[in-house]
Specification:
With 226 residues, the chain is α/β, with parallel strands linked by helices. The chain has two domains: 4-121, Rossmann fold; 130-222, Arc Repressor Mutant, subunit A. Helices cover 41% and strands 22% of the residues. It has helices at 12-24, 35-44, 61-69, 85-93, 106-121, 156-167, 175-183, 192-205; strands at 4-8, 28-32, 49-53, 76-80, 98-101, 130-133, 136-139, 144-147, 150-152, 173-174, 212-215, 219-222. Strands 2-1-3-4-5 form a five-stranded parallel beta sheet, with helices on both faces. The chain is globular.
Length: 226
């Protein structure tokens, strides 16, 4: 199936190189050199993926991401030369699905975009009641979790944490972001709360607990080997 990407990048040379790589993989590419053009193109076309630079003239990438998220759940990949944790958190809070730091390899960018589309179009992330991945089954309507057919008893917070990790499949989530999203911004506990709950959740999931990976000096991500 041929997909359409909206590529938003003010560096003309970078934009041309990225476009060339996506077109070689049979993507249709809409190019925008600033945020205003990007929003116009998004309104006028059916887009499957947005690859969005942050530092742009007229309307910056944060504003473009926010305005797209107000009306669409299209996958968004942010690319930027800035690598600060605060920027990563900002992107996730605005609803970005992937975060890529420059300098980047166009070949790797296309591969990550393809993987993101496969995850988005797959079982995980759909709005259906049942999520299935490997031996793990989560029924969101019944609030139940099964591993290899055996029901697993989770606390409400463990259940909410698991759903949050699955929702962001393959994405590295900083501890601060997990704490704010699952426990709330006004929670007075520290980051060890996240670590403790992750440890308990892994233990209860048994062999499937390995799907919750620790990313050193970054956080956690949910990703299961196929």
């Amino acid at each position: 199936m041929k997909r359409t990407i909206l590529l938003v990048e003010d560096d003309m040379l970078m934009r041309e190189v990225i476009t060339d790589y996506f077109q070689k993989e049979q993507w249709d590419v809409l190019e925008a050199e600033n945020g205003r053009i990007a929003l116009d193109l998004f309104e006028q076309n059916s887009v499957d993926l947005v690859v969005l630079d942050i530092m742009m003239p007229e309307i910056d990438g944060w504003s473009v991401c926010r305005r797209i998220r107000e009306k669409s759940d299209v996958p968004i990949m942010i690319i930027t030369a800035r690598a600060e944790d605060e920027d990563h958190l900002m992107g996730f809070e605005l609803g970005a699905d992937e975060y890529v730091t420059k300098p980047l390899s166009p070949r790797v960018l296309v591969a990550r975009a393809t993987a993101l589309m496969k995850r988005t179009e797959g079982t995980v992330g759909r709005e259906g009641d049942t999520l299935v991945y490997g031996q793990l089954t989560v029924n969101r309507a019944a609030y139940t979790v099964y591993v290899a057919g055996t029901k697993i008893n989770l606390s409400p917070k463990e259940y909410e944490l698991l759903l949050f990790l699955i929702k962001h499949y393959g994405k590295v989530l900083p501890r601060e972001y997990i704490l704010d999203a699952v426990w709330g911004y006004d929670y007075l506990g520290d980051l060890r709360t996240v670590d403790t709950h992750i440890k308990k959740l892994r233990a209860k999931l048994g062999d499937e607990g390995r799907s919750i990976a620790t990313v050193i000096r970054s956080g956690y991500k949910f990703e299961m080997e196929r």
